[in-house]
TrEMBL record:
Name of this protein: histidine kinase
4-aspartylphosphate PTM positions: 846
Species assigned in the record: Halodesulfovibrio aestuarii
Record SUPFAM superfamilies: ATPase domain of HSP90 chaperone/DNA topoisomerase II/histidine kinase (SSF55874), CheY-like (SSF52172), Homodimeric domain of signal transducing histidine kinase (SSF47384)
Spans through the membrane: 353-375
Length: 920
């Protein structure tokens, strides 16, 4: 490739000239800067001698960085030769030498390698090279405490991985029972041996150690020859012996290996010579390169104190292939990313990239040919599939355009289209709408579409279950799925989808001469999903319309409530007038005229029933919380029957069996609503004629019960369990909301009772309500004797009402009770009549009057007579009065009476207030 590039350059000489000119132009400022910049002085202080292999690696790494520096450098080298001469003994002489050599030279940075030079600088740096930054590398077992009183220092520690090397040795030689440790007495060997001693306890249960550290050569040779053969050897550097013998790296390794013949492992890459197997090694090149990079950062302006010391360095699994082969260690046993040196290569291995490239090219050509053939085949299939999908898309678009047609018309159109598109002979569509329980079954065969009724299928339940499974499958299915095909043959595919528990749709196609594939199964699934989307639109539209109708109905009910509330006052005033006139007529009719007096009494009762009826209408049209009180269910039943009696046609017969019962605790208005609902449901079920039975009684085991029975159409068994569900109704659309029985069930449950139903289709239905007793005491029959009215004395009363007839009737009633009554038709007239308040003991005033209301009149009267009792007489119910009762009390209102006023209630209220006033 190099020659090829030179040829290209020769052919394009003009381009080379232009390129050279451009590079010169770009580099010229850099050269000018370099010429104008003063060179930096760098001292490389080496612990060992020139040529020492570890030192060679360090220098190579340093030169790799320093030689590429953009800063001009002047590098000076010093070798302390600590492997041959103890640094502690010669340190003073070296310090004296360096003082003389570099007295006139200031260094910008010092790069120190290994422990001896680092310790020398710790001792003499401030004397020889004051304030000069130091970068160290190759320092064994670096401790942060060494930097105390030793500033402007950074570097990288020589943290070799002896543990990893020991682990590696035992993994590659699993039969080893002993580990032999060999080392000299120089500085690095002593530190390395100390590390091994701290690691020995971790391996005691796996291997036994034979420590041959610090022995003379003849003793070491003898010991090595005696070690067991099932051993591995950990080499820690044997350069300096106790007797002063000094060995080179290769001499040391050869000496140890020749005397032991054991697989040797170490942790430094420069020791990977003949005789050494390998290990997890630290490389001197990395140490030197890192140290030089740190030095360059200092030369570029960073402070040494700002550069943290790197306490770890990368290690590598490195091995010598001949020694691996000698000891029978295969390459497969080595860790991943291992570096293997001196690997024997065969001719194929030497040229494997070329051979591999040729093979790849041949295979590439072959693959291209095969790929073109496959691509051509796929293209044809893709074109066919595209035409198929275009047809499918056209069908789906046609479906979408039928979004507003009837559902049955859509299904009739869809099934033949789907069968034709699938190239099938027969097709089946099964649709189940869950809420309405509607089922549609379509079968297409031989160009004819058939609609199948539910009764024509042998196994409808099987098809319903199959459609509800959300399946997508192929194969044989039950013969009953295929109407008209008693023994289906050939291939079949079936898909089914469920629409949010609202609908289930199943599609199936079959053909004797058709083999269906996966893509056709997907097509059928897509048709199924698309049809369900259209069905969803119809169901959502129907639901929306239904909700709109319900909302309109609720608005009508709300409008009815508003209308009822607005006219209640007027109706009560009319009834009050009728009642007062009847009472006055009763007083004028002689006792001997029994029939006219009886007619007057009936008129009075009618006015009271009218008052109750308006009260019921108000309660029915408003939602209020339960007003828990003691209630007589028999009285509610009688009143309810009276209320619905006008709704009964002439052909209706009512049979009532209402017995006196104990009272129950509940809200009379809501219990009244329960009875009304049950009665109206029974009336609707009998279609214009029949017998309605109402029974109220008491059971010792259950409590008070109420039964409403009719002989109408009854309820089908399959929907009997759903009649209490909200919005469920069997009536035609627009004739019911489906909320009546749901509300009834909720009211009965809130009262602690239960409701049950029995029904026989065509014979009738019976609803039974059971409620718990409030007390075991029976209600006593009302005495027919008239209750004595509390009479008045000589008290003066002021009656205020803008309706003259009502005021006149009330005056007549009160004067009959013995009171002196003064009338006023407005609040202003009342204030004028009242004067200073010395005459009147009590005021009865209408609540709603033009100008000043009754409450405002009461407040005005309180300013005159603070303790004056006031009775409000109103045609409204309590909900139309102020919600804050303290406002009424502050105005002196002590009682509220609703029109038409009952004479007994009126007499008792007045007497109670007057007597209380007299006592106070």
């Amino acid at each position: 490739m190099t020659y090829g590039r030179l040829t290209d350059l020769n052919r394009n000489f003009g381009s080379i000239v232009l390129l050279g000119t451009a590079l010169l132009f770009l580099l010229l400022p850099r050269f000018s800067w370099a010429l104008d910049t003063k060179p930096k002085n760098v001292l490389l202080l080496n612990s060992y001698h020139l040529g020492y292999l570890w030192n060679v690696g360090l220098l190579e790494g340093m030169h790799d960085v320093l030689n590429r520096s953009s800063i001009p450098l002047r590098i000076r080298y010093e070798f302390m030769d600590a492997k041959h001469y103890t640094s502690d003994a010669f340190a003073p002489e070296l310090a004296s030498l360096y003082r003389q050599k570099y007295a006139d030279l200031k260094f910008d940075v010092i790069i120190s390698s290994d422990n001896d030079s680092f310790n020398f600088l710790r001792r003499y740096r401030n004397q020889l090279f004051p304030d000069t930054p130091v970068v160290f590398c190759g320092v064994n077992n670096f401790q942060s405490s060494w930097l105390e009183n030793f500033h402007q220092v950074t570097g990288i520690g020589e943290h070799f991985d002896l543990r990893g090397t020991m682990e590696l040795a035992l993994r590659l030689v699993p039969k080893a029972k002993y580990m032999v440790v060999v080392g000299g007495v120089d500085t690095s060997s002593r530190m390395n041996h100390h590390v091994v001693e701290t690691l020995m306890p971790e391996f005691e249960d796996r291997v036994e150690f034979i420590d041959l550290y610090g022995l003379d050569p003849d003793v070491l040779a003898e010991k090595l020859q005696q070690v067991p053969r099932d051993s591995v050897l950990l080499y820690l550097a044997y350069y300096l012996t106790p007797n002063g013998t000094r060995l080179t790296v290769q001499e040391s390794i050869d000496f140890v290996y020749q005397n032991s013949k054991l697989p040797m492992f170490t942790a430094w890459s420069y020791l990977l010579e003949d005789g050494m197997v390998g290990g997890k090694m630290l490389r001197g090149e990395d140490q030197g390169r890192t140290a030089a990079q740190l030095a360059m950062r200092i030369l570029k302006g960073e402070k040494a104190e700002d550069i943290p010391v790197q306490k770890t360095a990368p290690t590598y699994y490195m091995f010598d292939y001949p020694m691996l082969k000698h000891f029978g260690i295969s390459l497969g046993q080595l860790p991943e990313d291992s570096i293997v040196l001196n690997l024997d290569q065969s001719l194929f291995e030497r040229y494997k990239w070329l051979v591999g490239g040729g093979c790849i090219f041949i295979f590439y050509q072959f693959a291209v040919i095969i790929g073109l053939l496959i691509t051509n085949r796929k293209r044809k299939k893709a074109e066919q599939r595209l035409r198929h999908e275009e047809s499918q898309l056209e069908i789906l678009l046609e479906f979408s355009h039928m979004a507003k047609v009837q559902l049955s018309e859509l299904l009739d159109y869809a099934l033949p289209k789907i069968v034709h598109h699938m190239s099938a002979e027969a097709g089946l569509l099964f649709l189940h709408l869950h809420q309405s329980e509607e089922i549609q079954i379509l079968f297409w065969e031989n160009g004819t579409l058939h609609r199948i009724s539910e009764k024509e299928l042998d196994n409808l339940q099987y098809m319903t279950d199959l459609a509800a499974q959300s399946i997508s499958m192929s194969g044989q299915i039950s013969p009953s799925v295929w109407p008209g095909i008693h023994s289906p043959s050939g291939n079949q595919i079936v898909v089914s989808q469920v629409l949010e528990e609202r609908a289930s749709l199943m599609l199936a196609v079959s053909g004797c001469n058709k083999i269906f594939e996966d893509n056709e199964l997907r097509d059928l699934s897509l048709f199924c999903i698309d049809l369900l989307k259209l069905i969803r639109l119809r169901l959502d539209e129907a639901l929306r319309q239904d909700l709109e109708n319900r909302l309109l109905h609720s608005h009508k009910l709300e409008a009815l409530g508003t209308f009822t509330s607005s006219i209640a006052h007027d109706f009560n005033n009319i009834l009050a007038t009728i009642a007062s006139c009847c009472e006055m007529a009763m007083d004028k009719i002689p006792v001997t005229m029994a029939i006219p007096r009886s007619d007057m009494r009936q008129a009075l009762k009618a006015s009271q029933r009218g008052k109750k009826l308006i009260r019921r209408l108000l309660d029915f049209s408003r939602r209020e919380p339960n007003r828990v009180q003691q209630v007589s269910l028999c009285r509610l039943a009688e009143e309810s029957l009276e209320m619905v009696s006008p709704l009964l046609p002439a052909d209706f017969k009512v049979e009532a069996d209402i017995k006196q019962t104990a009272t129950i605790l509940g809200d009379p208005d809501k219990l009244f609503l329960v009875i009304i609902n049950l009665l109206t449901n029974s009336i609707s079920a009998m279609s214009g004629k029949g017998v309605l039975r109402l029974q109220v009684g008491e059971s010792p085991e259950e409590g008070v019960f109420l039964e409403v029975e009719d002989n109408g159409c009854g309820i089908e068994p399959d929907i009997l369990d759903r009649i209490f569900d909200p919005f469920f109704t069997t009536r035609p659309k627009g004739e019911g909301t489906g909320l009546g029985l749901s509300v009834v069930d909720g009211i009965i449950r809130s009262h602690g009772g239960s409701i049950s139903v029995k029904s026989i289709p065509g014979k009738g239905t019976c609803f039974r309500v059971v409620l718990p007793l409030a007390t075991q005491a029976l209600l006593e029959e009302k005495s027919n004797a008239p209750e004595a009215l509390p009479m008045g004395g000589d008290e003066y009363l002021l009656v205020v009402d803008d309706d003259f007839d009502i005021a006149r009737g009330m005056k007549h009633t009160l004067e009959k009770l013995g009171y002196c009554v003064t009338l006023a038709s407005s609040a202003n007239e009342a204030l004028a009549e009242y004067g200073d308040g010395g005459l009147f003991s009590l005021v009865l005033t209408d609540y709603d009057m033009p100008g000043m209301s009754g409450l405002e009149l009461a407040q005005a009267l309180q300013t005159i007579t603070p303790d004056l009792p006031v009775i409000l007489v109103t045609g409204f119910d309590n909900r139309s009065l102020p919600a804050d009762k303290s406002t009424l009390l502050a105005a002196g209102v002590r009682s509220i009476i609703h029109k038409p006023a009952d004479s007994h209630l009126l007499a008792r209220s007045i007497r109670a207030l007057l007597d209380d006033t007299l006592r106070s």
